[in-house]
Fold this sequence. Notes:
Elements: H1 3-8, H2 16-31, E1 35-39, E2 42-45, H3 47-56
Amino acid sequence: xxxxxxxxxxxxxxxxxxxxxxxxxxxxxxxxxxxxxxxxxxxxxxxxxxxxxxxxx
Length: 57
């Protein structure tokens, strides 16, 4: 998912300052293994987290 879409999902405005804040938080989470960064600024559910979610159902 694009950082601009991530920013607008919780109701933030798609302006540069808001998008950059979301991007930096997403990058920190990606370093911890939560989302996977497919390319610069594009994030998705990490495969490991997805498998855990499927197993827990």
